[in-house]
Amino acid sequence: MVPDIGTLSENIKSCLQEGEELPLDFTKMFNDTLFEFNSFKVPNSIQLYKDLELKHEPLTLIPPSFETPMPPLKPAVFPPSIQELQAPSLELYDLDQMFATEDNRIAQITNKCVDEDLDYYLKEVGEILGIADIIAKERGCDSSEVDSKEILF
Questions:
Q1: What is the rounded distance in angstroms from the CA atom of residue 84 to the CA atom of residue 13?
Q2: Can you tell me the distance from the alpha carbon of 138 to that of 153, in angstroms, rounded to the nearest whole number?
Q3: Are 120 and 144 in contact (CB under 8 A)?
Q4: Cα angle vertex 107, ends 101, 111, to 5°?
Q5: Does residue 132 contact residue 151 with C-beta atoms inside 8 Å?
Q6: What is the pLDDT of residues 11-66, one digit of tens each?
Q7: What ranges do the domains of the chain cover?
Q8: pTM for this model (two decimals)
Q9: What is the largest CA-CA distance in the chain?
Q10: Average of pLDDT values for 121-130?
């Protein structure tokens, strides 16, 4: 249920609130007993040691041991000697060529070749599409021996 705000706004009721009169001396308004430090309870606590039959000894100071996470810094006299990285142990592969789709690989070869490279272009496209492998199985030879005319045929 939603109250009728329009009706409530027409029935405004005033409220007067009276507070306590402030004292003439403003220092009486402060309460110092909240954070008071005294020794009134010390005799009671010593008596509690006797009641519980515990030995009462004064507290001793435990020397602190600070952990230093880093050794102290010293200024460098000579510049640091940076070692050369070793050569990679594996051969470097062109990942774009290894994981590219057939369409992307054909597009790369098409952009790379000019009219004079037509024989090379046909052999490479035949390798990508697997036509050279099919012809090589029929002839009983290696796919690199397949001619571009045979791929077109």
A1: 85
A2: 14
A3: no
A4: 150
A5: yes
A6: 877 777 777 788 888 888 888 777 777 788 889 988 999 999 998 888 888 888 87
A7: 113-153
A8: 0.39
A9: 119
A10: 90
